[in-house]
Automatic annotation (TrEMBL):
Gene3D superfamilies: E3 ubiquitin-protein ligase SopA (2.160.20.80). InterPro entries: 5peptide_repeat, Pentapeptide-BTB/POZ_domain. This is Pentapeptide repeat-containing protein. Coiled coil: none annotated. It holds the Pfam family Pentapeptide. It comes from the Bacteria.
Length: 292
């Protein structure tokens, strides 16, 4: 019985090996048959159409064979390069899959923040290297950010800060055809989001108290009902953003673009650097407003 089992294992290994290299074997066999056929054709042509004695015909056949060998050598080289490239791409795809799986395991480690941060950086790297991973990575990081942000924290947690930076680092988010980032009700006070791109993101009910959105892109962003007390919006682009019913007390609007912004029912006590020129461009004004 053991001998039979060994034979079965042997045949199984042989079968797997043949399957793995079947395309190479097929191409090799076809190439060999083509070579034999062309060599036979050359000899037939030489004997049928080349005038002269046997020596001249032999020389002609030798020259033709040499040319044929060189041609087939070039084809073989091209085939080798093709298979090398394909092997590299397959290995790279496998490596990316392994990295993605490992990163998912890391961000699920609830005991070690450093491990989670490493996994987040890996996901960000994969998304930046290949844009087709962005939708999946965005969905994962949005869920992660909301799950790991606690309403008891005075400031954003380091891993959530990393996730937000990755999410806001995708270029071209002004494209409305992309799926919107869903970060509703996230708790991220004092987050450092300088230059972040949250255009068209859904941030309703979020807590970004004293967060720094300097030079951020908030075009068409939903921030209704958000707690934005002390937020820094210096130089931000917030065209058509929705701030209705949000608390913007103490916010700094220096050089912010507020064109077509909704400010209805906002609390805006003690705001800084908000000019009448900016207010003339908004769609709706706040219910209470005073300068700081």
């Amino acid at each position: 019985m053991k001998s039979i089992a060994k034979v079965r294992i042997l045949f199984s290994l042989i079968g797997k090996t043949l399957h793995k290299y079947m395309d190479i074997l097929v191409i090799g066999v076809v190439g060999l048959l083509v070579f034999i056929g062309l060599a036979s054709l050359i000899e037939w042509l030489a004997s049928s159409f080349i005038d002269g004695d046997e020596i001249n015909r032999a020389k002609a056949v030798s020259v033709a064979r040499t040319s044929l060998i060189q041609l087939l050598g070039g084809v073989a080289l091209a085939g080798g390069l093709f298979f090398t490239g394909r092997t590299y791409l397959l290995a790279r795809a496998t490596n990316i899959t392994d990295l993605f799986s490992k990163a998912m395991d890391q961000i699920g480690d609830r005991k070690n923040t450093s491990v989670r941060c490493g996994g987040l950086h890996t996901l960000g790297m994969l998304a930046h290297e290949n844009s087709r991973y962005w939708p999946a990575v965005e969905e994962i990081l949005c869920t992660y950010s909301k799950e790991y942000s606690s309403g008891d924290d005075d400031e954003v947690q380091p891993d959530v800060q990393i996730a937000l930076n990755i999410l806001g680092g995708r270029k071209g988010r002004e494209n409305e055809s992309w799926s919107a980032l869903d970060l509703r009700n996230i708790h991220a006070p004092k987050a450092q989001l300088v230059g972040i791109n949250f255009s068209h993101a859904r941030l309703s009910g979020a807590n970004f108290e004293c967060a720094d959105f300097t030079d951020a892109s908030l075009i068409g962003t939903e921030l209704d009902g958000a707690f934005l007390k002390g937020i820094i919006l210096t130089g931000s682009r917030a065209r058509a953003a929705d701030f209705r019913r949000s608390n913007l007390s103490g916010a700094d609007f220096l050089s912010a673009d507020l064109s077509n912004v909704e400010l209805a029912e906002c609390t805006m006590e003690g705001v800084k650097n908000l000019t009448e020129e900016q207010l003339q461009k908004v769609n709706s004004r706040p219910s209470s407003l005073s300068a700081g």
